[in-house]
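Lab notebook, bench 4. Continuing the backlog of folding jobs that were queued last week. Each job is logged with the same field layout so the records can be merged later without manual cleanup. Today's entry covers AAA family ATPase, a 599-residue chain. Filled in by technician R.K.

JOB TYPE: sequence-to-structure
TARGET: AAA family ATPase
LENGTH: 599
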Amino acid sequence: MVRSDDYQAVPPSTSSNVSEKNSSGYDDLEQLLSILPAQLSQPLSNHPQRHQLIEVILDLGRCPEARFPGKADYLSDQVISKADLEHCIERVGAFGGDNRAGIEKTLHRISAMRNRAGDIIGLTCRVGRAVFGTVEMIRDLVESGKSILLLGRPGVGKTTALREMARVLADDLDKRVVIIDTSNEIAGDGDIPHPAIGRARRMQVAKPEFQHQVMIEAVENHTPEVIIIDEIGTELEALAARTIAERGVQLVGTAHGNQLENLIKNPTLADLVGGIQTVTLGDDEARRRGSQKSVLERKAPPTFDMAIEMLERQRWVVHEDVSTTVDHLLRRRLPETQIRTVGENGKVLITHELPEVPSQRRTTARRPAKRGWREAGHMKPVQTAAPLAGTLTGPTSLTSAPAATDDFQALLDQQLDTSDLELSTPVGPNGEDLVPIYPYGISREQLHHVIDTLKLPVSVTKELSVAEAVLALRSHVRNHSKLKTIAKSRQLPIYTVKSNTIPQITRALQRLLDIDPRDQAEAIDLSLFTRQGADDELEALEEARLAVEQIVIPKGQPVELLPRSAKIRKMQHELAEHYRLKSLSFGDEPNRRLRIFPA
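JOB STATUS: finished
OUTPUT FIELD FOLLOWS
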């Protein structure tokens, strides 16, 4: 299911002026060409696609190469010599511990490749451009004040987006912005930052391994409202980011990985999305979830409130609630995705795509089974836009359990195998698909007991978004308008019971599944009314059954049963209710007994 909206991408007042400069001088391409030998810079100056140049590759003993979108051209038939490399190295800044250098007051990045002796044998001269207007795709998210994490493959434009977000936050929103510029890639090389970051301030990092220290220093010394970090890649940096977020500072950063699943599987960066731990569920909770006892759960709130997967330069996937997305992924459910693209007319198109339940599941769930399960068309498909998982249920208490690293990784790979998300449908005792129902106010112990005893093709879910029917206590529904509103919007039928008794729950499930109670009149499973299986309980229930079937119903006479304990009398009451007969207890303990009356 898809719902969409769009709006005009109107750049801020300063963007239009700056974007004009971008086409002529804001890429500073001439300064990059000036560091190259003359036999290389001349072909590039006259190249018809010079303004689309991505990078220049200079490898010792190979022909120089210029890379453009979708293709690469050789600049010369002569191979690169050490003199050519030295010519370039002398005209750029010093190479740091990350083997990166720059050109002062530009955004270009020069990366070095070294041999085992430490000598430079290759250069990657990447063109840095101040591209304006990209932030308009997510301007509403930037202005929300929430922390944002950008993900994407190299070269998709993460650093470019960070640079403009810094300018918008500092100039348009008047916030105190500090950029942690590890490789001088965001604000350019040199002591004076590039004008593309606006009024934002830049803190340089002496060595990449000190980035986490500079992050903490920025918070403690310079009172920022926003901190921008590029390439969070170590556990210390992830921990520093969490510390900053807990101090109330808005974070905008990038991390290695294409999607959130990559971060969940990365133990170094998993803390950015809340961290992952193995927990052991109790028997009832595991049965209620329909899962194994050892599952994965999120340990803490995520460091970043929102995450953006940059699939392409103008096609981004937005996760407005990282915690909800991670929880869905850990429970092997596909989350709702919001996709933002820019059309040819300059409008930003926002599309909400809901995970669709496989057609096979929807079709077979409505196919009548051998025992007369519900007919096709009785349950209507979900037709709403937003998942309401957990709306009516509270948090579940879980007990943490340690796990070995190998076991944890195996469980993580199993739970995050997106190839069969929502595709594995449990089946009933006769091979039919289970009908997911959402119980509200119903005793789960009684409900599971009825389902297990009668072997009904029903599964219990706590997610209203995947349920096909609601089973609720009548008094709860009467006083809960929100449940009725949600069920009506999702076109979910609500089946109610008067009380939390086995006969009431049994008849409600029979109505839900279109089972005729007369089809089951040949024999009553007495284990439906007992959980202990003790001989005295079965004897008492058999006594009540014979009294009903041989005296009360055929002869229309009341019957008194033998004195029993309160627990057994309750079972006898439920058995009489199953026959829709009235029963009363009378007498004093220990001789208190049950009397069953005809209808």
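OBSERVATION: The chain has four domains: 27-126, 134-273+303-334, 430-522, 527-597.
SIGNED: R.K.
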